[in-house]
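Q: How would the structure tokens look for this protein?
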Amino acid sequence: MLNYPSRLSLAHLPTPLTRLERFSVPSSDTEIWIKHDEITGTEVSGNKIRKMEFCLAEARDQGCNTVITCGGIQSNHCRATAVLGARLGIKVHLLLRGEKPGVPEGNLLMDYLAGAEITFIPTEKWYGHADYAAELQADYVKKGDKALFIPVGASDEIGLWGYIAACEELRSDFERLKLTPDYIVTATGSGGTQGGLIVGAQIYDLKTKVKAFNVSDDAKYFDQKIREDVSLWKQRYNVDFDDSGLEIDTIEGYLGSGYGVAGQAVFELIAELARNEGIFLDPVYTGKAFHGMVSELAKGHAGQLSGAKQVVFIHTGGLFGVFPQQEGFRFD
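A: Here is the predicted structure in token form.
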């Protein structure tokens, strides 16, 4: 029996698991199922809220009245943290990578509306953001406050619990729907969702493999990051878990020009899925991962999802990130 640490009830759970009925992959008879974590809430929709249930519980347990976190200007994680902070009465200070835009859009607009304190750090100085966060923590102490630092994407040994718990939910989904998926597919940007799914699938004996498509960095990075997070998780929570055989499978080749930059094929696929199923992906995370999954399925036995009869795609959210990139869509 797994003993979970403190947890706040913030997400609308369980999220639905539904099959795509009208969208299909050419030359493939694979059933595609969507785990709808884009509707874990409204303004705080997406995968990050699962992690934040544990991270914000940790902040509460430590007596913090402030959280500091970081990410890109259109970070889903930062937006979720800002909104949750407003709901819980916790001050949120965001460190965002890049220059302050003239007009805030998408997630950034919501950060401002939710009352977050925002510091922009130029890209060339981003390597020092953790040091800056530590300085901020010291400054808050001088003011009589206490701040918890949550890393990018809430991807650490605390946030790992979010998708470990999600696997318990998936086990119930599979039993109820009589599913035996060959693969669980997700986008990976900071490694926390991927890591939690890998650990949770092993703990809850899901008998399926986790495949991730990187939207930043490379497979080597995620292998190292996840192993470090799992090691820290075992130590911090004194968990008896065999991590010697972790299968960390990150499929490369669909990153495109870089993080947050999608090719035309991704935009076209986002529009196709919306048109056929009423499901909206984003060009930063889910659109790239879904494009990668569809491309690999279309390769048949030559692809990295070879032989799949059923796959479950984790829809990690990101809707608000569509609007700042609307120029990528073409409507003739």
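The longest helix spans residues 219-237.

The mean pLDDT is 96.

Upvote if useful.
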